[in-house]
Design goal:
By secondary structure, this protein is an alpha/beta fold. It folds into two domains: about 5-155, Rossmann fold (3-Layer(aba) Sandwich), CATH 3.40.50.720; about 155-320, Lactate dehydrogenase/glycoside hydrolase, family 4, C-terminal (L-2-Hydroxyisocaproate Dehydrogenase, Chain A, domain 2, Alpha-Beta Complex). It contains eleven helices and 14 strands. It has helices spanning about 15-25, 50-60, 75-80, 100-120, 135-140, 155-170, 205, 210-225, 225-235, 240-255, 305-320; strands spanning about 5-10, 35-40, 65-70, 85, 125-130, 150-155, 180, 180-185, 190, 200, 200-205, 260-265, 280-290, 290-295. The strands form three sheets. Strands 3-2-1-4-5-6-12-13-14 form a nine-stranded mixed beta sheet. Strands 7-10-11 form a three-stranded antiparallel beta sheet. Helix 4 links the parallel strand 4 (about 85) and strand 5. Helix 1 crosses helix 10. The longest helix has 22 residues, at about 100-120. The chain is globular and about 50 Å long. The relative contact order is 0.13.
Length: about 325
Amino acid sequence: MSKPVVKVAVTGAAGQIGYSLLFRLASGEVFGKDTQVQLQLLELPAAMKAAEGTAMEIDDCGFPSLAGITISDTAEQAFDGINWALFVGSKPRGPGMERNDLIRDNGPIFVSQGKALSRAAKDVRIVTVGNPCNTNALIAQHNCRDVSPTRFTAMTMLDENRAKAQLAKKAGCNVGDINLAIWGNHSSTMFPDFENGSINGKKITDTIKDRAWLEGDFMKTVQLRGAAIIAARGKSSAASAASACIDHIWRLMHPTPAGKYFSCAVASDGNSYGVPAGLIFSFPTRSLGNGNYEVVKDLPLSDYSKKKIEETTKELLTEREVVKDLLIK
């Protein structure tokens, strides 16, 4: 009996994150050993040679779960018939660039990719990794009206993983003992919810009683971790971002255990925690399996948490205003 095939498009495939991501996708780690993975790589014409070299290396790994690799510099071809689109490629922020400059520079990329996705794929789920990922996902979604907005997600799993690592060090526990989610934007305004989170089933604030650390050093470390990594290694985080993308897909593919949730930026329905409809906003999320999800309802929010969520909501509304001319009504 032939094995099922899942077709996965990866943009910016020759970049640092792509290089760290592709081998794990091909290995069977995400979709299982009984599923064949067809990789469809998208790169700029100038980076096609590098993508070819990466494809050669993947071939040389001899993964039994790899169905094949195609490489293209046109989105329509790369997205043809795909089941997952991983929007990894985006223009990085340069010296002296403001965040709004980055948003405007990346906007047209996601307009064209959203349109190409609409023409090339129907049964597809999208994970946006390239920053600013929430607003990039919003742009692509607005330009891809043939695909349901619920199929578009942006990755805040990296923020969750960073937060759990810091909490585990502080509490002297394993990262796997922690349940926590990120609210809002993948930016310095995002909010790691230590008030509703837990460690071994107990509230985080009952295990870590140093509230000043939670509101201060912990929050600052998680929110500014990306900048700290650039300062330390001279390059942005790649392996950890790729690993978070794997975690994001895996969690969407498998039902979330009872009492648990994870971080996923999705299109707000307008009825969840006061977040305006349509914003791609990170919520505590539960997977129903096979890519379907639901936002966790009725979590209690203190005045402190509400303020943090309002701050990140305001930033996302500002970003939406910057790209409003790119959003198809």
